[in-house]
Amino acid sequence: MLPYLMVFSADFGGREQRIASGGATQGPITETLLAYAVAFSVSAAMLAMFGRVDTVNGAATARVVTLAFPASIRAALGRLLI
Fold this sequence. Notes:
The structure is a single chain. By secondary structure, the protein is mostly helical. The chain has one domain (about 1-80). It has four helices and no strands. Helix 1 (about 1-10) packs parallel to helix 4 (about 60-80). The radius of gyration is 15 Å and the shape is elongated. About 15% of the residues are buried.
């Protein structure tokens, strides 16, 4: 929710161009959900690569979510820069 508010509800420049562009992945909700999915997937892959996630359980999910939340915030800030 916070990345969506940062990118689409804040009054930054270029918002009209972002809304006016067409495409299946260019809607605000779709773009935000894709960013969450990528952040979650990359976080899970990194934790698995470093041996912090062996099986899917509550502790592993908590680690992935804890790492994915700041990653999604950084992704939103990156989208603002582009």
